[in-house]
Amino acid sequence: MRVLAAMSGGVDSAVAAARAVAAGHDVVGVHLALSRTRDAMRSGSRGCCSREDAGDAARAADVLGIPYYVWDLSEEFTRDVVDDFVAAYAAGETPNPCLRCNEKIKFAAVLDRALALGFDAVCTGHYARLDPAGPVLRRSADAGKDQSYVLAVLRADQLRHAMFPVGDTSKPEIRAEAARLGLRVAGKPDSHDICFIPTGDTRGFLADRLGTTPGALVDAASGETLGTHDGVHGFTVGQRKGLGIDRPAADGRPRYVLGIEPVSGTVRVGPEAALDVTAITARTPVWTSGAAPDAPFGCVVQVRAHGGTAPATVTPLDSAVQVELSEPLRGVAPGQAVAFYHPDDDGDVVLGSATITGTA
């Protein structure tokens, strides 16, 4: 089988490519150039996809003895990930750019190009497991590294051409395997945070692009104005720090962001308990089986990359879903994805996902 291995420059994708080679596939490595200012894409262990990472990927490909190329997808990445991220925050939402990158870049732009070039599959270093016969997407064996949530946006036809070779192995074992193979990235720190904001200053990044749009911080219960802010893009539901309120609540407990109204510029705050939600509405569902369920079904939902799970009943609608939670979840924000997992087998199998539009 001809396999295109997406090599980020990290240890996971390097070992994934190595395993594809060991399995006897005809493997070609590709590194994705996602920014025209690549020197600014990494700061220490923050960010990824920099020139440093491209060099690490090239050296790994050389050790593995496979051809290696760099594909410039900076235009697509800016349009489909960065601009989408900025627009979502301006609309009072909390997007997940890693999820969008998987959906729009790695398993759309890259996969489409790979298939056009005669490849059979795209191989990545994601921590998830895949049974191609289904296709059935499962959580990884290493629960702490599981990335099935950010892959739950993939359609059945995309999963049929995907490979996740490291999903059955723990991260320490992957590092040990890389060392045995002579890969210099064996001890390379994991990248974290948003790759195109390597400083970690999301508020500053958004302010540079959206400017200042003053609004009010309002107590959700009393309607009292507690302060002002420079733009709703500086907040997300569930946020506690950086609210800029100069006096404590009447009960002395912290306040949290409960809701964001981008049109009026109002950010509503209140007690932690008010973050509990028992119902979620979500748009544009994607089903990993390729077919939408025709009746309500029980499942386990997840609303964040790590954590935020609860039993639920999902009712499919025309182009949306209604989710009724069996137990409340906190800090569920519009713009996040809600992923659906089969209730059996410890919630291991991904059924699909949708983008959250509202909560109750």
Automatic annotation (TrEMBL):
<dbReference type="GO" id="GO:0005737">
    <property type="term" value="C:cytoplasm"/>
</dbReference>
<feature type="domain" description="tRNA-specific 2-thiouridylase MnmA-like C-terminal">
    <location>
        <begin position="278"/>
        <end position="356"/>
    </location>
</feature>
<dbReference type="GO" id="GO:0002143">
    <property type="term" value="P:tRNA wobble position uridine thiolation"/>
</dbReference>
<comment type="function">
    <text>Catalyzes the 2-thiolation of uridine at the wobble position (U34) of tRNA, leading to the formation of s(2)U34.</text>
</comment>
<keyword id="KW-1015">Disulfide bond</keyword>
<dbReference type="Pfam" id="PF20258">
    <property type="entry name" value="tRNA_Me_trans_C"/>
</dbReference>
<keyword id="KW-0808">Transferase</keyword>
<dbReference type="Pfam" id="PF20259">
    <property type="entry name" value="tRNA_Me_trans_M"/>
</dbReference>
<feature type="binding site">
    <location>
        <position position="32"/>
    </location>
    <ligand>
        <name>ATP</name>
    </ligand>
</feature>
<dbReference type="InterPro" id="IPR014729">
    <property type="entry name" value="Rossmann-like_a/b/a_fold"/>
</dbReference>
<keyword id="KW-0819">tRNA processing</keyword>
<dbReference type="Pfam" id="PF03054">
    <property type="entry name" value="tRNA_Me_trans"/>
</dbReference>
<dbReference type="InterPro" id="IPR046885">
    <property type="entry name" value="MnmA-like_C"/>
</dbReference>
<dbReference type="InterPro" id="IPR023382">
    <property type="entry name" value="MnmA-like_central_sf"/>
</dbReference>
<feature type="binding site">
    <location>
        <position position="125"/>
    </location>
    <ligand>
        <name>ATP</name>
    </ligand>
</feature>
<dbReference type="InterPro" id="IPR046884">
    <property type="entry name" value="MnmA-like_central"/>
</dbReference>
<dbReference type="GO" id="GO:0103016">
    <property type="term" value="F:tRNA-uridine 2-sulfurtransferase activity"/>
</dbReference>
<feature type="active site" description="Nucleophile">
    <location>
        <position position="101"/>
    </location>
</feature>
<dbReference type="InterPro" id="IPR004506">
    <property type="entry name" value="MnmA-like"/>
</dbReference>
<feature type="site" description="Interaction with tRNA">
    <location>
        <position position="336"/>
    </location>
</feature>
<feature type="binding site">
    <location>
        <begin position="6"/>
        <end position="13"/>
    </location>
    <ligand>
        <name>ATP</name>
    </ligand>
</feature>
<dbReference type="GO" id="GO:0000049">
    <property type="term" value="F:tRNA binding"/>
</dbReference>
<feature type="active site" description="Cysteine persulfide intermediate">
    <location>
        <position position="195"/>
    </location>
</feature>
<dbReference type="GO" id="GO:0005524">
    <property type="term" value="F:ATP binding"/>
</dbReference>
<keyword id="KW-0694">RNA-binding</keyword>
<keyword id="KW-0547">Nucleotide-binding</keyword>
<feature type="region of interest" description="Interaction with tRNA">
    <location>
        <begin position="145"/>
        <end position="147"/>
    </location>
</feature>
<feature type="domain" description="tRNA-specific 2-thiouridylase MnmA-like central">
    <location>
        <begin position="204"/>
        <end position="270"/>
    </location>
</feature>
<comment type="similarity">
    <text>Belongs to the MnmA/TRMU family.</text>
</comment>
<protein>
    <recommendedName>
        <fullName>tRNA-specific 2-thiouridylase MnmA</fullName>
        <ecNumber>2.8.1.13</ecNumber>
    </recommendedName>
</protein>
<keyword id="KW-0963">Cytoplasm</keyword>
<feature type="site" description="Interaction with tRNA">
    <location>
        <position position="126"/>
    </location>
</feature>
<keyword id="KW-0820">tRNA-binding</keyword>
<keyword id="KW-0067">ATP-binding</keyword>
